[in-house]
Design a protein that fits this description.
alpha+beta; Nuclear Transport Factor 2, Chain: A; seven-stranded mixed β-sheet; 5 helices; 7 strands
């Protein structure tokens, strides 16, 4: 029985090593994929591309987002409740800028965390509705061969 368990463990390990998500990891390529995911987490609203948004946000109950003013979003279902605001014609994207992006990977390479500064420039009913020089941190996880945002936190300096 011990031999069977050991053989199964080895076979599973070999399959994992051959899986395209884990084979030939290149940190620079993964860093670019993470950066693109982070950018899409804000930039999706330029074209109001819900498919892109839902591709980069973790779609489960463990998703967490902390916004200025202590507004906390728990889970993907609660996150989806805020989407109509951005889809409203009164909300207009102008531009976004991500600066000083720092990405760190876990030893396994399946988790990454980041810090950056964000300018998210928009209007609501023609009036400025922007976040400028916001601190943005977050955690991403590689799931089904793609990076998704699992947690993010936005804050203003005092």
């Amino acid at each position: 029985m011990k031999i069977v368990i050991m053989m199964l463990t080895i076979l599973i390990w070999l399959q994992t090593c051959r899986h395209p998500c884990f084979r030939d990891r290149n940190e620079e390529i993964e860093r670019e994929k993470v950066a693109n995911t982070i950018d899409a987490g804000i930039g999706w609203v330029k074209n109001k591309d819900l498919d892109l948004l839902y591709k980069v946000i973790s779609q489960d109950s463990t998703y967490l987002c902390v916004n200025p003013g202590n507004r906390i979003v728990y889970g993907f279902d609660q996150f989806k409740e805020s989407v109509p605001f951005w889809m409203d014609d009164n909300f207009q994207y102008i531009k976004h800028e991500i600066r000083d992006l720092k990405i760190t990977f876990s030893k396994s390479g399946e988790v990454a965390w980041f810090f950056c500064r964000l300018n998210d420039i928009n209007t609501w009913r023609g009036e400025p509705a922007s976040w400028e020089n916001v601190r943005w941190t977050g955690v991403l996880e590689k799931m089904k061969c793609r990076w998704v945002i699992r947690q993010q936190h936005f804050s203003f300096e005092k």
